[in-house]
Design goal:
single chain, 38% helix, hydrolase, 5-oxoprolinase (ATP-hydrolyzing) activity
Length: 246
């Protein structure tokens, strides 16, 4: 029996409406705060659910593009990107203050998440946003990414994240959603995928290569088909192997 502990996070407040089922199964959540989805009503509702289930709360800012669900790269100036991200996070923070809850982390969404993993200019905007807050807030980042390196250089606390429901390329980028192998929908495949990353600190890429990876938190997308049943089975399988969810 192994003595591992991990965090499981989920993206919520994105209009799916399954948060009441997801919250008992996760230990942290990323709340859409108006960029790709969400508004003050949805944020407040999800915050209350997270508080009820003692789930750590993160902000999930995005390119301001609800039409494309934040999954298309936008050509914004650094100033404009900073302004929208700061505004989105502040909107969530104002609700958290009302509920007497602290913001645990920030996790960029979609195209922005993928961009800051490889693009220094965009990643530096995220760094400046994080530095603009007085209280230390963690940043969920991919292993060996540009944003991770910059955060460490700027003394911003990071948490390495991997995806339970997404396949990887050999360079640790996520397989494009335009490809049929992008999403993992099978519970046994998902468990093998996640447990391999926990136990061996390696992920099997779609090319078949075994690639080193580190992760302390694992994400399942709340809008994934059958996210609730996938999460339930994943937790059962992990706990059978002695992996604790924290």
């Amino acid at each position: 029996m192994n003595n591992f502990s991990i965090d499981i996070n989920v993206d919520v407040g994105e209009g799916v409406g399954n948060e009441s089922q997801l919250m008992p199964l996760v230990s942290s959540c990323n709340i859409a705060c108006g960029g790709h989805a969400g508004d003050n009503v949805t944020m407040r509702s999800v915050v209350k659910l997270a508080k009820q289930h003692r789930v750590k709360i993160g902000a999930h800012p995005s390119f301001p593009d609800k039409e494309n669900f934040g999954r298309v790269k936008m050509d914004l100036s650094c100033t404009a990107l900073f302004a929208t991200l700061k505004h989105q996070i502040e909107d969530l923070l104002s609700i958290l203050r009302e509920e007497h809850i602290t913001l645990h982390h920030v996790k960029p969404h979609g195209a922005l998440y993928n961009l800051v993993a490889v693009d220094k200019k965009a990643a530096l905007v995220i760094i400046e946003v994080m530095k603009s807050f007085v209280d230390p807030i963690k940043l969920y980042v991919p292993f060996q990414s540009v944003i991770a390196s910059l955060a460490l250089e700027n003394n911003i606390p990071i948490v390495y994240e991997a995806f339970a429901d997404r396949n990887y390329n050999a360079d640790l980028s996520l397989v494009s959603r335009t490809k049929k192998e992008a999403l993992i929908r099978d519970t046994d495949v998902m468990f093998k995928h996640v447990y391999g990353m926990i136990l061996n600190q390696k992920v099997i890429a779609v090319t078949g290569e075994s690639v080193p990876i580190k992760a302390e938190t694992f994400c399942i997308h709340g809008d994934n088909f059958n996210a609730v049943s996938l999460l339930k089975k994943l937790r059962i399988n992990l706990e059978k192997e002695g992996v604790k969810i924290r």
